[in-house]
Amino acid sequence: MSSMIIYAISNEFLDEKSMINALSKIKEQFKGRLPVNRLKVIVQTTIELMQNIINYSNIYSNLKEKKREGYGSFFLIKKEIGQYKIITSNPVNHTQKKILQERVNELKNLDKSELQKLLKERMRSKKNYHQQGAGIGLIRIFINSISAIKVDFKHMNNRGYLFTMEISF
Amino acid sequence: MKSINIEGCDNSPKVILNFTEGKIEITGESYPENTFDFYQPILTWLYDYFNAPQKRTIVDLNLLYFNSSTVQVLFEIFDIFQDNIGKTELIINWYYDKDDSDWQDDFNYFAEEFEMLKFNAVGESRT
Hints:
The complex is a heterodimer. Chain A has helices spanning 16-30, 36-56, 94-108, 112-124, 136-144, and strands spanning 3-14, 70-80, 83-92, 150-157, 160-168. Chain A is α+β, with helices and mostly antiparallel strands. In chain A, helix 1 (16-30) packs antiparallel against helix 2, helix 2 packs antiparallel against helix 5 (136-144) and helix 4 (112-124) runs antiparallel to helix 5 (136-144). A five-stranded antiparallel beta sheet of chain A has the order 1-2-3-5-4. Chain B is an alpha/beta fold. Chain B has one domain (4-124): 2-Layer Sandwich (Transcription Regulator spoIIAA), CATH 3.30.750. In chain B, 33% of the residues lie in helices and 33% in strands. Chain B contains three helices and six strands, in the order E-E-E-H-E-H-E-H-E. Chain B has helices spanning 35-49, 68-83, 103-113; strands at 4-6, 14-18, 23-30, 56-66, 89-97, 119-124. Chain B has a six-stranded mixed beta sheet with strand order 1-2-3-4-5-6, with helices on one face. In chain B, helix 1 links the parallel strand 3 and strand 4. In chain B, helix 1 (35-49) runs parallel beside helix 2 (68-83). The radius of gyration of chain B is 14 Å and the shape is globular. At the A-B interface, helix 1, helix 2, helix 4 and helix 5 of A face helix 2 and helix 3 of B.
C-alpha cells in the first residue's frame, strides 16, 4: 500500500515546548488541505498522545516546577489511501504497561455509542480529577479513530516496554 | 472583587474575568502543561463571584483545541454555573467554527449534561 509521511518527529526528550512546535508545524502542514473537523481530530489526538508521553514516559521531571519531559518517543503522521494514520511510540515501565493494557482492553470492544457513554461518565466523574484527565484522552482517541486501534508492547529490557499505538482518521 | 486578565499563549487561553461588567471570557487553545494549576485561580474566582454576582453575567467560551483535562475543568465550571442558577441572568455563548461539521459533538456533551443551563451556539468564520 502506498503511503506518504506527512510529519515525523523523534525526540530524545519531548517537553511542552517541543510539543507546541510540533503542533504548529502540523497545523501549518494541513492548513487548507483538510476539512476543519478532520484537522481538529488530528490536532486534538496529537495533543492527547504527546501529553501522555510527557506525563507518563518521563524520567527527568522537575517536580518543583512541574516540568516534565517524555523520553525516547517517536511520533509520525502518514497519509494512506483515503485515510491518515498516527503512529506513536514511547517507553513505559511495568506499572504503566499494566494500566495502559487494562484501559485499552476496556475500550477496544466498545462501539462508538458505548464509548460516547463512557466518555460522558468519565467527564462527570471527579475521580482522579487531579491525575491528568482520568483516561478521558484515551477514550476520545478511540472515538475518533475510524478503524480498530493497534496497540503493541514490545519488551525492551527489565525496566520496561516500548508502547506503540496506531490510530486511523 | 478583583478582575483577572490572563494573556493567552500557544497552549493556554486568554481569560478575562471582569466582576464589574459580569463578564467571563475564555478564548483560544487550552492544553496547558499543568491544566488544573492553570485553571485553579479561575475556579476560585468563579466560586467567589457567585457569592454576589452581577444582575447579568455573560460567558463567552471560544475554544479552538482543548485537552481532556480542560474538558474536566469545563465540567466544573458548568457545575458552578448550574449550582448558582437564579442568582444572575446567565448567558452562555459557545463559539464554534462554522466550517467545522462536527462542532456539535463537544457542544452537545455540555448542553445535554447541563440541561438547566441555556447555551447559545454562535457560529463564526475562523478562516
